[in-house]
């Protein structure tokens, strides 16, 4: 036996033995000296009497390695025609077939005797998982055949015919099932599958020594048809007396179990629930485009529509195209300029393509594709396409609240309502009494401008819990696996191939919910506890009147988003902000354009620079997360997502650099050369997102800065950098104000319940933020001095660590002992010890407190900063509270959905039994299928309940009680 550690080195001990044994199978083995048939136990081979049929010696690759005589072999295989044989010939095993030893298979009787078989013996090629067979068979013509035609005889034998009339090829059910899985799991295409089966049948097939019929085209057709029918079967289309043609849009795509579906998995009375609980019955979707899933124009292609167009994940193509044809090109002025420069909304290169990508809509929390939530894109990511897809994807659910996460939500949402009127009447929806909330996916939001992020980041929107909207990227990663094989396909084949992939994706997502929801809930309960503590920490330091005033400001904002944003600073800065400078630069550019100075590119120089600075900012965030020592698996995957998003944005930025800063392009080329020279070993990984050189003008060597930058980019960057310095300096002061306030409060209130949990407290979070801001200041200042010369702006001084340290604050490197000493000293104070000094600014005031504009508004600054900290801490707490409740509701919905399936399939079984319009054998099949579905869904429901009642820790135990009494929410809230 192998030990777990060294299986391969232990193999060395047995490799010779194994080698000998595998060769032994090529002989007669134990029976070498006296071969005999394992079935009739008679002597076989040369010693058997001539003409007895025992002279010939066989072995079956599918039955087992035992020996069989000719007669036993033929008799044994009358109902197993898809076995491959070997015959002992000239001292070795030679491949042979049942057909070549005379087997004629009897259809209609599963190989057993028919009283009146068809006189004609026919040939058929059958594709089966063990190879490609050419068999002989007869149709049945006895009474059994009265109720079925020849095609049905093939189907009833588990063989799917390739053509309607006189089929010469069929594919077995087993081969279809195997291929479908190899395709959806491993992206194996039909050509490779058939080639493998050909080689399995005859290793020398490619030489043409033996001739195997070409089954590829027939197989391709059949596998598409059979997968389509499988999807139809599972959606109960066979059980509808009105038949396939009555299929409704999107019906064949598996629904997401934890998402809300009206009339399937919502508790009765959900419509009447209090406003504050409505978010529990909200559908949260994510919308995005993928430009890897292209399709080329092919010449002389015959029309090849998808099977059941519009019945699955893709929208019905005819109506969709009709809508797009009448649509005029859209002109959209983006106000979020950094983002506009980083997006590839319009793909430039669509030559030779009839499909430039795919637009998709998934549920954001579980990443299931929505029925009718996919559509082809022709010319980039146009609203005309995306609106149509989104509204189709909402499908038949009728809820009171929806959230749409979209990485261009800030622009897209502006005229959505007006554009709705351009959609076909059947798709239009009345949202007047419904909440439609739009947000930016949490990581993607980083590429937007600060004001935009503060308004639209999903993490600040009420009711979404911790949904991050990034899940659709994971779906794209899965679909990209078939980007290559679908690129040259006919449109119909492509759509059907993608339907299969999406179908399997949704199926797996649903099955995974038992584990996924449980894990997420355990995390959410723990995190909620931490955020509640952090909020308490700041809340108790604020006077009740202030709290009420601030809460009112939040409420007003949530009611009406045009009100002042409570998560933003309302204090004027000491100098123009980055946003101010951006506006100024843009106006100057427009003035230049009006004076006849043609812009270099449709994306302005200001937008280009802003985009670069935003990318730089996302690099800090990446580095910040990656640097945390303990990377949990979850955070690790977040870092990965973040990096992918970064590279997606980097590409268009590089494109703009070619126009604006050719010097940067030259530096990139040098970088690449240096890497190639240094790394003879090509396995050296490319640098991570946070270590990439962006090559903004300030990063370029002096020569490239003067020659390699167009226009007055250098001057423009300098102005932006200066404003970055001022912005980050005020933000640092604000964060320090709050921190000081919290520490003082803590010191003044040591009544013995002083908490020493450091790592999660708000004070520590503020410390981390100050460090990040300090890094931003240092980088901006360094760039500014490079651009303007070392003597420039003496008031923007070098920022030292000591400048950020509040007096009396515990240092980072304090040992545990130091801290407990201090803590003991504080306790002493209560019984007459030396009073602890107030934490203040350093005794020698750091320059940041005396810098221009800083002292004038200190009181106001403190207030503002506390208000924002308090508002944000409250929002964070609220999101985690929502997350816990959402997860519990989702678990209840999964169970309800499965119960709905059990009930519905049970009803279908009963309805099938009662049908008088069909024969008993058809009824039996419908009933059998339905009852198998009942059993499956009941088993899943039991399994999930079990999984959610596992006693992993207190949190999970608590959740079990909730799942069992699941409608407590209504009894307590009404
Ligand atoms: Zn025998
Ligand atoms: Zn066999
Ligand atoms: Zn018969
Ligand atoms: Zn879902
Ligand atoms: Zn934006």
From TrEMBL:
Residues 807-826 are annotated as: Disordered. Residues 98-204 form the CxC2-like cysteine cluster KDZ transposase-associated domain. InterPro entries: CxC2_KDZ-assoc, KDZ. It comes from the Eukaryota. Keywords: Coiled coil. The keyword Mitochondrion does not apply. It holds the Pfam family KDZ. Residues 863-897 form a coiled coil. The keyword Coiled coil applies. PANTHER family: CXC1-LIKE CYSTEINE CLUSTER ASSOCIATED WITH KDZ TRANSPOSASES DOMAIN-CONTAINING PROTEIN (PTHR33096:SF1), CXC2 DOMAIN-CONTAINING PROTEIN (PTHR33096). This is CxC2-like cysteine cluster KDZ transposase-associated domain-containing protein. It comes from Mycena metata. The lineage of its organism: Eukaryota, Fungi, Dikarya, Basidiomycota, Agaricomycotina.
């Amino acid at each position: 036996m192998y030990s777990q550690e060294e299986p391969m080195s232990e193999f060395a001990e047995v490799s010779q033995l194994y080698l000998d044994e595998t060769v032994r199978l090529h002989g007669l083995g134990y029976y070498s000296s006296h071969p005999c048939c394992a079935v009739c136990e008679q002597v076989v081979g040369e010693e058997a009497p001539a003409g007895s049929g025992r002279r010939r010696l066989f072995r079956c690759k599918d039955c087992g390695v035992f020996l069989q005589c000719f007669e036993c072999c033929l008799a044994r295989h009358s109902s197993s025609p898809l076995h491959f044989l070997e015959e002992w010939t000239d001292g070795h095993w030679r491949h042979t077939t049942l057909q070549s030893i005379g087997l004629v298979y009897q259809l209609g009787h599963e190989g057993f005797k028919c009283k009146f078989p068809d006189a004609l013996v026919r040939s058929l090629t059958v594709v089966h998982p063990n190879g490609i067979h050419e068999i002989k068979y007869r149709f049945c013509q006895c009474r059994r055949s009265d109720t079925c035609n020849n095609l049905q005889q093939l189907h009833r034998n588990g063989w799917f015919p390739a053509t309607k009339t006189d089929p010469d090829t069929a594919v077995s059910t087993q081969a279809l099932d195997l291929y479908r899985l190899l395709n959806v799991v491993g992206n194996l295409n039909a050509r490779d599958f058939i080639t493998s089966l050909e080689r399995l049948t005859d290793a020398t097939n490619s030489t043409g020594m033996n001739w195997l019929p070409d089954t590829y085209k027939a197989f391709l057709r059949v596998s598409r048809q059979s997968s389509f029918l499988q999807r139809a079967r599972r959606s109960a289309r066979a059980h509808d007396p009105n038949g396939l043609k009555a299929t409704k849009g999107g019906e064949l795509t598996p629904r997401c179990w934890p998402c809300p579906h009206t009339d399937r998995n919502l508790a009765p009375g959900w419509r009447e629930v209090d406003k504050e609980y409505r978010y529990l019955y909200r559908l949260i979707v994510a919308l995005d485009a993928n430009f890897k899933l292209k399709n080329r124009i092919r010449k002389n292609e015959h029309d090849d529509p998808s099977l059941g167009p519009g019945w699955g994940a893709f929208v019905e193509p005819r109506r969709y195209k009709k809508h797009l044809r009448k649509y005029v090109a859209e002109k959209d002025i983006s106000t979020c300029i950094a983002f506009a420069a980083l997006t590839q909304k319009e793909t430039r290169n669509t030559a030779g393509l009839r499909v430039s990508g795919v637009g998709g809509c998934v549920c954001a929390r579980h990443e299931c594709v929505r029925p009718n939530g996919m559509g082809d894109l022709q010319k980039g990511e146009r609203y005309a396409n995306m609106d149509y897809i989104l509204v189709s994807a909402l499908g038949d659910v009728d809820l009171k609240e929806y959230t749409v996460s979209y990485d261009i939500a800030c622009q897209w949402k502006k005229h959505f309502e007006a554009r709705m009127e351009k959609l076909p009447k059947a798709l239009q929806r009345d949202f007047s009494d419904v909440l439609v909330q739009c947000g930016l996916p949490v990581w993607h939001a980083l590429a937007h401008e600060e004001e935009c992020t503060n308004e639209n980041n999903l993490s600040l929107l009420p009711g979404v819990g911790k949904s991050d909207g990034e899940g659709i990227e994971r779906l794209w990663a899965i679909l990209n696996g078939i980007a290559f094989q679908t690129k040259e396909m006919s449109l119909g084949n492509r759509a059907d191939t993608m339907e299969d992939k999406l179908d399997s994706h949704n199926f797996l997502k649903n099955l995974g919910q038992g584990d996924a929801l449980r894990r997420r809930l355990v995390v959410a309960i723990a995190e909620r506890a931490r955020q509640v503590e952090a909020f308490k920490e700041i809340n108790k330091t604020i006077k009740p009147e202030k709290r009420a005033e601030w809460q009112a400001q939040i409420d007003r904002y949530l009611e009406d988003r045009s009100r002042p944003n409570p998560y933003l600073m309302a204090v004027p800065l000491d100098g123009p902000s980055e946003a101010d400078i951006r506006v100024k630069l843009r106006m100057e550019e427009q003035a230049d354009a009006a004076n006849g100075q043609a812009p270099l590119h449709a994306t302005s120089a200001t937008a280009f620079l802003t985009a670069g600075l935003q990318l730089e900012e996302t690099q800090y965030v990446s580095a910040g997360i990656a640097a945390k020592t303990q990377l949990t698996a979850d955070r690790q995957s977040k870092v990965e997502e973040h990096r992918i998003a970064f590279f997606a944005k980097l590409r268009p930025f590089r494109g703009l650099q070619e126009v604006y800063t050719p010097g940067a392009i030259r530096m990139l080329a040098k970088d690449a050369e240096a890497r190639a020279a240094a790394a003879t070993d090509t396995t050296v990984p490319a640098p991570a997102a946070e270590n990439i050189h962006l090559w903004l003008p300030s990063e370029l060597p002096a020569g490239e800065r003067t020659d390699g930058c167009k226009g007055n980019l250098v001057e423009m960057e300098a102005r932006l950098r200066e404003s970055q310095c001022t912005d980050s300096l005020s933000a640092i002061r604000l964060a320090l104000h709050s921190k000081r306030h919290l520490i003082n409060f803590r010191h003044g209130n040591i009544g013995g319940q002083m908490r020493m949990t450091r790592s999660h407290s708000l004070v520590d979070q503020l410390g981390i933020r100050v460090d990040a801001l300090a890094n931003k200041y240092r980088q901006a200042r360094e760039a500014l001095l490079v651009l303007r010369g070392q003597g420039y702006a003496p008031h923007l001084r070098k920022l030292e660590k000591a400048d950020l340290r509040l007096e009396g604050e515990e240092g980072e490197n304090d040992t545990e002992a130091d801290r407990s000493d201090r803590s003991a000293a504080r306790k002493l104070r209560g019984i007459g010890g030396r009073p602890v000094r107030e934490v203040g600014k350093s005794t020698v005031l750091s320059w940041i407190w005396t810098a221009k504009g800083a002292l004038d508004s200190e009181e106001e600054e403190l207030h503002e900063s506390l208000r924002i900290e308090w508002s944000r801490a409250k929002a964070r707490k609220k999101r985690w509270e929502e997350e816990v409740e959402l997860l519990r509701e989702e678990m209840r919905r999964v169970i309800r959905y499965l119960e709905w399936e059990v009930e519905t399939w049970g009803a279908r079984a009963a309805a099938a039994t009662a049908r008088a319009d069909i024969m008993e054998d058809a009824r039996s099949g419908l009933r059998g299928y339905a009852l198998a579905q009942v059993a499956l869904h009941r088993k899943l429901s039991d399994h999930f309940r079990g999984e959610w009642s596992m006693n992993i820790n207190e949190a999970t135990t608590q959740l079990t009680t909730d799942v069992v009494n699941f409608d407590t929410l209504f009894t307590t809230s009404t």
